Amino acid sequence: MEKGKSRRAVRCIEALAFLLIFVLLLAFVSDALRGRDRPEFYSERKNSLDVLFLGSSHMLNGVSPMELWHRCGIASCNLSENGQLLPVTYYVLQDALDRQSPKLVVLDVYKVIQDTLYDEKSYLHTSLDGMPLGLGKLRAVYGLLPAGERTEFLFDIVLYHDRWKELGSLEREERDPDFKGYSPLYTTETHEGFQILPESDTSAPPEIPVDYLRKIVELCREREAELLLVATPFTTPVPDDMDRQQRVNAVKELAEQWDVPFVNMMHSLDEMDFDLNEDLADTYHANVSGMKKITDFLGRYISERYDIPDRRGERDYAAWDETYIRYAEKLEKLEDE
């Protein structure tokens, strides 16, 4: 009897070990076939980042952590992605706070305009595919997707399996870590006559983004990270059937209810010297010129109001100065192309 129990126990252990190895191999092959690296955030030293930037493409194209480092000595990373809605941001932040203990989280609220858990699946892949398989990714996939649509996000070999012929080896092109999440845009689009609506002109945002914005507020308080809500400058189609400006304006009242600061840069353009005809790459996104003005404005705001250390000169952050030099050279080269 005892021998029978022992054999069953051994078989169970062997089965579990096989399953674990299978899952790890599947995750590794999925990562190789994906053809994109993991975000540079996951290579940062644990608890080395003092500020995290999150949001959609407005933040992705609007704030450069290396510019912030050069100007203020703030160690930060930009975790924003194209089409990242607030429910997705909530799970990205949750995973990030399991790995870092930032003093401040800065969140762009533009996506308060959209009443859905996620945008197109391609955008959801952009936010989740780089997240290592673990508790954070499981929470995100099970929180955002119905049962029949989760597999390709947990094991994206399902999505990328046709790419195996492209690989001479299991190597992938690494994303340049020197930009620390920032994605530059170089074009310029003018917006003559665009009307910025007064702060008092509001429209109630939809339920889903407000609910997840509230969850982000609560999560930051639980993890003892301060939260700063912002809206970077943008324009809109005319007419605007989504009331973009009005819904973003409405965040001010929500922020006051939650006792969270909100900086709507749409109403600080003169102070920022931000020109809608020179500093936007398109209707919604800042170009490199606009990024520098947004980053400078936020850097001054953060330095004046938060106890964020200037890490320049600290031994543990010596590599950041070298990274900035590479970043600046690459940015200038890209601007000249």
Description:
- The protein is α/β, with parallel strands linked by helices and 337 residues long.
- The chain has one domain (2-336): Rossmann fold (3-Layer(aba) Sandwich), CATH 3.40.50.1110.
- Helix content is 46%, strand content 6%.
- The chain is built from 13 helices and 5 strands.
- It has helices at 2-34, 57-60, 65-72, 86-97, 121-128, 135-144, 151-154, 157-160, 207-222, 244-258, 269-272, 288-305, 318-336; strands at 51-54, 76-78, 104-108, 226-231, 262-264.
- Helix 3 packs across helix 12, helix 4 packs antiparallel against helix 6 (135-144) and helix 4 (86-97) runs parallel beside helix 9.
- The protein is globular and about 80 Å long.
- The model is unreliable at 22-26, 32-37 and 161-173 (pLDDT under 50).
Order of helices and strands: HEHHEHEHHHHHEHEHHH
Radius of gyration: 22 Å
Q: How would you classify the helix and strand content by structural class?
A: alpha/beta
**Level of helix content?**
40-55%
CATH evolutionary superfamily: SGNH hydrolase
What's the mean pLDDT score?
88
Count up the helices: 13
CATH T-level fold name: Rossmann fold
The number of domains is: 1
Kindly state the number of beta strands: 5
Distance between the termini: 76 Å
Low-pLDDT parts are 22-26, 32-37, 161-173
- Cross-sheet strand order for the largest sheet: 2-1-3-4-5
Shape verdict: globular
CATH architectural designation: 3-Layer(aba) Sandwich
CATH top level? Alpha Beta
